[in-house]
Amino acid sequence: MESRSFRALVVREGEGGVFARSLEEKKIEDLPEGDVLIKVHYSSVNYKDALSADGNRGVTRNYPHTPGIDAAGVVEESASGDFSPGDEVLVTGYDLGMNTSGGLAEYIRVPFSWVVKLPEGLTLREAMIYGTAGFTAALSVWRLTEAGVKPEVGEVLVTGATGGVGSIALRILAKLGFTVVAASGLMDEAEFAGYEKKLLELGAARVIPASEVDDTSGKLLLKGVWPGAVDTVGGNILATVVKSAAYGGVVTTCGNAAGHELALNVYPFILRGVSLLGVDSVECPMDLRLKVWEKLAGEWKPDNLEELSSEITLEEVEERIKLLLAKQSKGRAVVRIQ
């Protein structure tokens, strides 16, 4: 096995700090040390992968490197008694695709503590339709519901509803019986009409432009509206949502596409008892990780899950990376590796 070659997307740093990407042949011995060797069948392309592929040192320190923070496949070798050759497994989060050779390759080798056995009810492809985005969405819903937010509380908000995390959170909440308001950050009226139709089909009760949750008045508190909210974008939109949360409202946060700074004051927390809950999918403890994946394979699994993604090949990943870097990518892309 150690002399076997396999295909992988490899990012290399050239002269002048210019980064180039190409499909290359690698050998099994090129992979990092680890307990479990996995033949990857499917991966996905995320914004973090695009940053790694563009030489972002905040994501990946050393090059050459193979990105891919998601992978699903079959165990070929295992030094852990928890996994055996032939097991169908998935890996998301931890260091995969960041500083550890990632899923945009035919093989990965990782510590056993990163590996999740594929839950009954999911295929390898479906696991990658979810990927890190779907897992993050499910963690957001988990935190919201564990904090006591129930369908009967009224309308709950999902920001960034056209994105990977937001669209899956919307689907899960709708399936659980919540009345979901989807906030869409589209610019012109024609685009908004098209995405409004799509979001209503996904399960939204109504759709609003992101400008309605992007308050610039400078007020310390806004009218209390939302008993629950899943924010996926951060920045001033998150600040607006917190300031407009209802008494006892719960807001989860998991992204920073609208900015990493948060202009808030204490009044939503000390006058309305609002809770702001952070969501991290990278270092999520394995016991919770397993529970959430079981939910995604079972009662939280959206109808017509396949509609949430398109399928591409390794050869087509370069074009998707360019779209992501230009912030022109729409929907999730599952990469068929094998």
Q: Using only CA atoms, what is the Rg? A: 20 Å
The termini sit apart by: 17 Å
The mean pLDDT is 94
CATH class of the largest domain: Alpha Beta
H/I helix tally: 8
CATH superfamily of the largest domain: Medium-chain alcohol dehydrogenases, catalytic domain
Give the helix proportion (percent range): 25-40%
Low-confidence stretches: none
CATH topology of the largest domain: Quinone Oxidoreductase, Chain A, domain 1
The sequence of SSEs as H and E is EEEHEEEEHEHEHEEHEHEHEHE
The description of the largest β-sheet is:
7 strands, mixed
The counted number of beta strands is 15
β-strand percent reads 25-35%
**Total domain count:** 2
Globally, the shape reads globular
Structural class estimated from helices and strands: alpha/beta
